[in-house]
Every structure is written in structure tokens, then in C-alpha cells.
Amino acid sequence: MRLKGRVALLTGAAGGIGRSIALRLAGEGADLALLDITDAVNETAEIIKGQGGKAMTVLADVADARQAREAVAEVNDALGPVSCLVNNAALTANIAPIDRMADEQWERELAVNLSGPFNLTRAVLPRMVEQKWGRIVNISSLAGRGGLHRQAGYSASKAGLLGLTRNVTLEYAAHGITCNAVLPGLIETPVVATHLPQLIMDYTMSLTPARRPGKPDEVAALVAFLCSDDAAYINGAEIDIDGGARLCQVVLGSTREVEARLASIHVAHPGAAN
Ligand SMILES: NC(=O)c1ccc[n+]([C@@H]2O[C@H](COP(=O)([O-])OP(=O)(O)OC[C@H]3O[C@@H](n4cnc5c(N)ncnc54)[C@H](O)[C@@H]3O)[C@@H](O)[C@H]2O)c1
Asked: How many angstroms separate the CA atoms of 27 and 39, rounded?
């Protein structure tokens, strides 16, 4: 029960990796404030309560600074000051070559994936400073370092999140606050399992030394560690959780492009997939 007595605010808690993080933090004793833009987040809260944990939900858009500020105030009043913030909510609004990216979609990706964490971080910091203790974990992505084909907005937002992470450390480490980034590779959430074309999965796994996608629970375990006292001296770190995929050059494209690339690999290296 490393997180007993802690209040953890987690964004994007309705499903996927967020739900796993929620269950793990609750299992380690934290009281959970689960924020999402969709009311499916109530299901996560019900699971936690069914397991004897404490959870409240807040419906809000992280991109809206006012909603983020009000959400933090609501949590501070209901559960006590937020001691752990996990910025997990994100979206991909735009899959297109850069010259065909729509303004609104580019702006929405930056607003949710980068301004969202900023809005929440700014709102939780004063009480963390008062407590002389705080943990902020930003869920970035492998794309934040290496880019992701036709996802410039997503990649730029996740790279920007690394910059925000560093600055929180520079400015607040002396207050007992840590801020770290987690960079997942391909994680097999229900959405990935259902919607990612098998060819893209196979190609990605061919470039992932572990030869399997990550599990949401594996990301959750890392986040729980970073939220604990055990991680007090890890600060401003960028921790890859990708089965070694960062060591390989993953270049995705449309299914047709990947097919063509795979075909060329097979021609050049028969039996390469084995
Ligand atoms: N799944 C992967 O392979 C993978 C890989 C690298 C990084 N990530 C990152 O991990 C995190 C979780 O990913 P996931 O696959 O579980 O995604 P997901 O789409 O399943 O979950 C994202 C959650 O964020 C919520 N959300 C979206 N916009 C919001 C907003 N404006 N305000 C509040 N909530 C909002 C969604 O409703 C959803 O519940 C994201 O930051 C994602 O970028 C995922």
C-alpha cells in the first residue's frame, strides 16, 4: 500500500491505459479522482468501489483551462489536496501528411495533449508546494522522440510534453515535487486490439525487440512506482516502456505503403519475418 493517504488525480480514466492506471493506484491505496470527457469514466469508478477503494469522477475537457481549474478545486474539496497527478488523457485528431493537416485538428491535438497537462499541472502545483510533496507523471509516447508517420500533431504534442516535464522539475524539484514522463511504445489496449490493422501490428512487432505489444498493466505498474516514495529522486526523467522499440526505426504509413515495404523486405531477405 505504497500510496495510502495519497489523493491521485488521473485524466483519461474511462478506459484503455487510464483504467489500468486507476485500478493499480487504487490497489496501492490511493484515493482516486478520475477525470474524463466521457461518462464511461463512471464504470472505472464503480470497479474501484466494488474492490473497496475510494473514487470520485469529474467530467471535464482537459483542454479547457477553466474546467481544469474547477476540476482540481472540486477534487481538493472532496478528497483533500491532490498529491499525485497523472496526465494520461490524449487523442489523435489528425492522420494526414503535414501539408494536408487541418488547422482545427492540429490545434485540438496540441490543446488536449499538451495544454491539457499544462492546465492541470498549473492547477495542482500550489497545493503540492504547500504539502512539500507531489508527483506528476506525464504519459508521452515513443512518438514524442521519434515522430510518427502522418501524425505530426500527436508527435509534436508528445514532444512538447517532454519539455513541460523538464521545466516542472527545474522549477519545483526543491519543493519535494517530481515530474517524470513515461514513453509507451505500442500498448495493447482494447481499442488497439480491436481497431489496429493486423498488418500494422505485425510490422510494428517486427521492429519491436520484445516481439509483443506492451500491456496496460505494465504501464500502470511504472506509473504507480513513479507516484510512490520509492521514486523520490527520479525527476525530469523520460522513461521508455516499449519492449526496446526505440532502438529500431519504426516508419508507419498507410496499409498499402506498409504492404509495399514488407513485400520489399521479403524480396530482399526471404524468410525475414521468421
Ligand atoms: N495505446 C498505445 O499504444 C499508446 C502508445 C503510446 C502512448 N499512449 C498514450 O497513453 C495514453 C492513454 O492511451 P490509450 O491508448 O489508453 O488511449 P484511449 O484513447 O483509450 O484513452 C484516452 C482517454 O482520454 C480521454 N480524453 C480524450 N480527450 C479528452 C479531453 N479533452 N479531456 C478529458 N479526457 C479526454 C478519452 O475519453 C479516453 O478515455 C495517451 O496519452 C496516449 O497518447 C498510448
From this structure: 22
**Domain architecture of the chain: domains with CATH:** 7-194+212-246 (3.40.50.720)
Question: How many CA atoms does the CB half-sphere of 149 hold within 13 Å?
Answer: 11
Coil, strand or helix: which one is 9? strand
What is the structure's pLDDT at 267? 58
Residues with CB under 6 A from ligand 1: 11-12, 14-18, 36-38, 61-63, 88-91, 112, 139, 141, 184, 186-187, 189, 191-192
Centroid of ligand 1 to alpha carbon of 72 (angstroms): 19
The average pLDDT across 107-123 equals 98
Helices (H) and strands (E) in the chain, counts: 11, 7
Distance in Å, CA 1 to ligand 1 centroid: 26
Question: Angle, to 10 degrees, between the axis of helix 116-131 and the axis of helix 65-79?
Answer: 30
The pLDDT of residue 123 is above 90:
yes
Q: Quote the distance between the C-alpha of residue 134 and its chain's center.
A: 18
pLDDT tens by residue, 165-207:
999 999 999 999 999 999 999 999 999 999 999 988 988 998 8
The CA 91 to ligand 1 mean position distance, Å, reads 6
Sheet with 177-184: list strands edge to edge: 55-59, 31-36, 7-11, 84-87, 134-139, 177-184, 238-241
Q: What is the pTM of this model?
A: 0.94
